[in-house]
Specification:
The complex is a heterodimer of chains A (264) and B (245). Chain A has 264 residues and is mostly helical. Chain A is 79% helix and 0% strand. The chains are: A mainly alpha (264), B alpha/beta (245).
């Protein structure tokens, strides 16, 4: 692994941002907007439902962390799409850059945009709703790590799909993450779902994170075994997505799909 | 002397299509070889396999005497290419594009090299312009500048002068010829401009339906097949390849 080349992939995206205000704003615009919407909705619900329920605390934290996950996924998938749109993949892979270094560069972009977006959201939550994400103390670290690995997995899975099916499948960059929240308890408890959907939720790592956070806030109970299970699931998703992405890359080389990515 | 590029029995099959069939050729140091043939003959497929952008079904590719499949990274430090279908990202500036690729190729003193190439290809005034705003000819010159960033010992040029006006095209041809001679760089050059091929190439390979049909010196080959020039020979390869076998 050559870190200079990995950093170059990151630098290419930084150059893009320097020349494009809308790309720069896009890193935190949607996340901040979602926080505004859900933040004020929860303030309203708290007013009509009674402050003792702790709606703000239960929802705002999950919204911030969900957006952290989504930023990682989109940082990876959209950076890859930038190279597809610019028809740059042949130029890149005609250099000594290898695919693992390229993926590592995309991951770096994903992490950087998630950190920037996360910081903006934490600040907005603090100023508008007096919400402090760090009230969870060191517990926030494993929660974030689980979501981090799952975000990477989603980003790599999306990239593999676009690599496999071509630029016409770019909608997956936005639709794949949109599939997760309804089953992950971002905005409501998993117990709200019908039982068969609760089974689906059981196999999604974010659902354990968000349920766990809710449990800490509402009843003061921290379920370490649940967090451990979520961690295992996330790592499994991560390695599966990485394996799938490498396999898809080999398929693309074998079937000449780079040409398709250059022309579609 | 070890050839710069040595391709042996290279084939590429897709489910219903044999894009390249049992192709063998080599390029020596300082030699410019033209790869000619009609659209769909297998030229770009061959170049993509040499660059590692396409996995061959069978056969071997040796570059600088080393197996490409095993030594890809080491080899690509000294290989580069320019192709009409692989333009540099339009949303980065000329300098940014060259800088990104200089880093990927591990060019020492990247800034100095970029300056030198921008001057050589008359791109200095576009340094901070977005690449997408350049004319197609200017973009082709930028592609060529990128192709020379790492002082390649093997250069793959897929229709490098396709969008360039005749005057600039002539300058580009003489620069690449001069570069190949001075550095002992082997060049694989595809073009549909037969005058260009006659001027630049030491040797040509005619490809049809994925096979090498003819090989020889561009000035001697037409006469060997009773044709008045390379263009007439090209037309025969494209329309009646069987008549030449």
């Amino acid at each position: 692994m050559n870190f200079k080349r990995v950093f170059t992939i990151f630098l290419r995206q930084v150059f893009l941002l320097k020349r494009s205000v809308h790309r720069l704003v896009g890193i935190f615009y949607w996340s901040a907007l979602e926080l505004f919407l859900w933040g004020f909705l929860t303030v309203y619900l708290e007013r009509i439902g009674g402050a003792e329920f702790g709606v703000i605390t239960a929802v705002i934290g999950t919204v911030i962390l969900w957006n952290f996950l989504m930023r990682i996924q989109q940082g990876i998938a959209i950076s890859f799409l930038e190279d597809v749109w610019a028809r740059n993949l042949m130029n890149l892979f005609g250099t000594p850059l290898n695919f693992k270094e390229y993926v590592a560069g995309l991951v770096l972009v994903g992490v950087a945009s998630a950190v920037v977006s996360g910081m903006v959201m934490i600040a907005v939550a603090w100023f508008l709703f007096s919400y402090n994400l760090f009230q969870f103390g060191f517990l926030i670290v494993p929660y974030v790590l689980v979501l981090f690995f799952f975000g990477l997995a989603l980003g790599m899975y999306t990239t593999a799909m676009i690599l496999r099916f071509g630029p016409s499948s770019e909608i997956l960059a936005w639709s794949i993450p949109a599939l997760i929240p309804p089953f992950s308890g971002v905005f409501y408890s998993i117990s709200t779902l019908p039982s068969w959907l609760q089974t689906v939720a059981f196999f999604l790592p974010p659902s354990h994170v968000f349920e766990g956070m809710r449990s800490v806030v509402l009843s003061g109970v921290f379920d370490s075994s649940r967090l451990f299970f979520a961690g295992i699931l996330s790592v499994i998703f991560f390695f599966f997505a990485y394996w799938l992405l490498l396999r898809t890359y080999r398929f693309v080389l074998r079937e000449g799909k780079f040409t398709r990515l250059q022309t579609e | 002397m070890v050839p710069v590029l040595e391709v042996r029995n290279l084939s590429k099959n897709y489910s219903q299509l044999e894009a390249v069939h049992d192709v063998s050729f080599s390029i020596d140091e300082g030699e410019i070889v033209g790869l000619l043939g009609p659209n769909g003959a297998g030229k770009t497929t061959t170049i993509n396999m040499v660059l590692g952008l396409l996995t061959p079904t069978s056969g071997s590719i040796k570059i600088f005497g080393k197996d490409f499949a095993v030594n890809r990274e080491e080899i690509l430090y000294k290989v580069n290419f320019a192709a009409v279908y692989a333009q540099l990202p339009g949303n980065l500036s000329v300098w940014q594009n060259l800088y990104i690729f200089a880093r990927l190729y591990g060019v020492p003193d990247a800034r100095g090299k970029i300056q030198e190439l921008m001057k050589e290809f008359d791109l200095e005034k576009f340094s901070s312009s977005r690449t997408g705003f350049l004319s197609s000819g200017e973009q082709s010159r930028l592609n060529l500048a990128k192709a020379l960033l790492n002082n390649p010992r093997l250069l793959l040029l897929d229709e490098p002068t396709a969008s360039i006006d005749p005057s600039t095209s002539q300058i580009v041809r003489s620069r690449i010829k001069d570069y190949a001679r001075r550095n002992g760089t082997g060049v694989l050059w595809t073009s549909h401009n037969m005058h260009e091929i006659e001027e630049v190439c030491n040797r040509v390979l005619f490809v049809s339906h994925g096979k090498i049909l003819l090989e020889g010196k561009p000035k001697e080959l037409p006469a060997q097949y009773g044709k008045k020039d390379l263009e007439e020979l090209f037309i025969t390869v494209a329309r009646e390849p069987l008549s030449l076998q």
